[in-house]
Amino acid sequence: ADFSVVTSDLTVEPVFFGVNEANKLKVDFNYTGKNFERDGVGEVRLNRVVDGDTISVYSGSYQAITIRFLGIDTPESTGAIQAWGKASSAYAKEVLYNAYSILLEAEGEERMDSNGKRWLAWVWYKPTADSEYRLFNLEEVELAYAKYSQKVSSKYHTVMKEANDNAKLTERRVWGEKDPNFNYQKETIETTLLDLWYNHESFQSGTYFYVTVRLVRTIGNNMYLEDAEEQTIELEDGTIISGKGSFYAFYGYSANYYRLYNIGDVFKMRCQLEWDSDYGSQLTGVSKTTTAKPENNVAPEIQVLDANDLGYSLREVKDDQGNLINTMVSDLADYFCKVVTINNLKCESVKVKGTGEDQYYTAVMTNQAGVKFDVYFSNSLITKWNATEVLKVGSVYNITGGIAYYQYANGYYQITVGDAPRYNNGKLNELDSLRVNDIIELK
Questions:
Q1: Lowest-pLDDT range, 73-82, 256-265, 347-356, 376-385?
Q2: Fewer CB within 10 Å, N- or C-terminus of the chain?
């Protein structure tokens, strides 16, 4: 597969520091020596911009926390793709990745969202060392990248509502302007994963597709998929490609696909394509999935690799600010979006990361040459288990998992292990028996 990075043609509008409310509004609280998680205010270090209204930051600890912006709602660009979603996300990245300083302000006692997984905050930023802090939530509303959505009692309700009303009058962006990079057609294109992989440039953002797929593994509510049958396509230069396309399908917390399907099931689904996102290329906006027919269930063929045949090579990837850089990248990149078995991985360490229900585990493993490979274990939504009890430091394993891009992993790519086996009244589901062998200890 061609793993080259496609640059976006989104244009990011610069901030004009003229007379507007985002420029006039001032920070009216003391944040010196304060910690956001503890005190409700504090300067933070940006980890990642997720989309137009969500970021990940470090607030005085090694563990990043997710921040949902108070008072605004930008169009979707991750779990689904909506008009202006990519543009609002691009604008947030342009501003916040280049900010000199970022300051967070909570409001009231309700500091987390209804899921208890994201902190809520007003986001202030300094463009330069000499400038004043600007309220980014307000700025996005003024530039019509977001709509205001907050109760009347909110601290900044008056200025936010006024900005929202003024932006609405302009009929720009989210208030009626057509997004030139978004497909507004309601037609759903029937195609294959192989075709989407090689011909993604033929489709505008937001296009919907019907694909017939086979389930290879689940990661929580998300899935590793492949074409149900072998496919053949012809590229524009006349090259013939045959095989099965593979993709990771992201769906967040909404649909329990691990309850709907067994490994090997074939079904049809509607989806969108997010090419070259922060986590690499993936399917999103999954909907209208069909019921699997048991007679079509066939165990996927999993390619087996030896860790000792894998190393690092010089490749082009994105850094943590989305810039293309040439650096040493794991050979796992050649199997991106595929589920593979990698033999002879020695466990060097297992670390517990995250908190509460968001807890997960990362194991660092090596081959005989000492090359490092990260193995990610989610906190299973099916059967709670602890990777620190499953894995033993010093032991060697054969591990089956999907290959995912993650900018903070050793070599930028990692092995993602699926959920623990499902149980029914204490009995192992026979169709899940494949999962039992995803982790095999050799010695």
A1: 376-385
A2: C
126's CB contacts (< 8 A; 6+ apart) are: 99, 100, 101, 102, 103, 132, 133, 134
Radius of gyration of the chain (CA): 23
CB 27 within 8 A of CB 85: no
* pLDDT digits 0-9 by tens, 77-114: 877 889 999 999 999 999 999 999 999 999 988 788 87
Count of positions (residues) in the chain: 443
User: β-strand 324-330 against 312-318: which pairing, if any?
Assistant: antiparallel
Query: pTM for this structure?
Result: 0.82
- pLDDT tens sequence across 205-224: 899 999 999 999 988 788 99
Q: How far apart are CA 369 and CA 344, in angstroms?
A: 11
* Angle 373-376-381 from CA coordinates, rounded to 5°: 165
The helices-and-strands tally (H runs, E runs) of the chain is 9, 27
Q: Other CB atoms closer than 10 Å to residue 147's CB: what's the count?
A: 18
Secondary-structure breakdown of the chain: helix, strand, coil percentages, each rounded to the nearest 5: 20, 35, 45
- Please give the structure tokens belonging to residue 381: 């939504």
